[in-house]
Amino acid sequence: MKYISTRGQAPVLSFEEAMLTGLARDGGLYVPETIPTLDKAEIAALAGLSYEETAFRIMRPYIGDTFTDAEFRDIIAKAYAGFGHTARAPMVQLDSNHFLLELFHGPTLAFKDFAMQLIGQLFQAALKRNGSRVTIVGATSGDTGSAAIEAFKGLDAVDVFILFPNGRVSEVQRRQMTTPAEANVHALAVEGHFDDCQARVKDMFNDFDFRDGVKLAGVNSINWARVLAQVVYYFYSAVALGAPDRKISFTVPTGNFGDIFAGYIAKRMGLPIDRLVIATNQNDILHRCLTTGEYRPDGVIPSISPSMDIQVSSNFERALFYAYGQDGAAVSQLMDELKNGGFTVSQGALQALQELFDSGNCSEAETSATITDMFATTGELMCPHTAVAVKVANEHRKTDVPMITLSTAHPAKFPAAVKAATGVHPDLPARMADLYERSERVTEIGNDLAALESLIRERIQN
Ligand SMILES: Cc1ncc(COP(=O)(O)O)c(C=O)c1O
Ligand SMILES: N[C@@H](CCOP(=O)(O)O)C(=O)O
Description:
five-stranded parallel β-sheet, 19 helices
């Protein structure tokens, strides 16, 4: 299996190279040259398998000869051993044909753990074998950063720097990033919002002196391995509800487009997904784009679902690549236009996107009202990101197709919004009960590329 860039100008890489590389050298994102498919019998055979075995069968075709089957099974087993639920991704039923897929039973209580725990193991195995070390730099609106720090803390061959928007993540998210004592992890509170953090990370990848000098690697969803790991739970949940003999729809709370793009890959692999519904909060650029074809970021507005406070949605580039018939030059041009304010999706590409995706948005008041209503009618306490998706899912459901809504974070990561909506303070699991007492270690820094690069250089030398 080979990996190609969405902008068509970067070297073609193996799985291991793409995983350790992050952003392509032409600024694009790596995607597999071809998307493997499973036939109906192979999908049916997933019924009743463990999460780990499902993960092995779905991901195996993508990893080429990077690992033997035995090594890969071992990596998967280690990745999910620390999850707090034996099903890893259990489902709860909200009503006759609406289901919540709980993706928050990993170590940091968000869906990011599914990919990050796996990538931690993949990096460790690959770097040990190569005898090399890397510097991971990531941007986060809260959950990617905590999951990355948890997955990579204490590893010999890796330094991890996480840029988060100062004052714009929840206290639990911040503390998950700032309280680990391991010397190889560094939480950087950046002046600005998530889009600034993500832009600086991409700037670092595009500064080849820096990139090659520190051996930069990325664990945001620019990394194909992140997306791949997330494909698994689409199969796992759909098969539990009767796929491939019945169609299933998914609604996904969306910001950087990595999670829903994994759903797109699942569909391309043969999973009978009826609709993929993009749910956005008040930062609804993706919903506007899907409706009008215009993609023009106009400033992030802080919300009670802060992990989705994003306007420059990184993986949308991958969706555009396919909507434009894998035309790297066309994608490159759109991304150049984005630097100058935005772009208009061509009529043909917009039609291709609309054939695959539905979309909707959710205001702050609607988010709170959904948390309140769901607690009153079903007893489920849900995080604000999940509530955004439940509201949008309810607008797109069909009576004859089950809807699975992705529940992406534990309500205890966002206690203020949940308590305000329900009167109930959601408790952290016992293993995290002392999170509020642990001491924090964080560096405040401006939104300045040179300052960030010099800080990273200094820290990795010491
Ligand atoms: C809790 C939560 N829900 C939803 C999202 C959006 O996911 P994506 O960025 O993959 O679209 C995020 C951030 O990634 C998140 O942390
Ligand atoms: N919501 C994310 C934003 C980064 O997304 P990623 O999937 O590209 O890592 C976060 O929680 O940090």
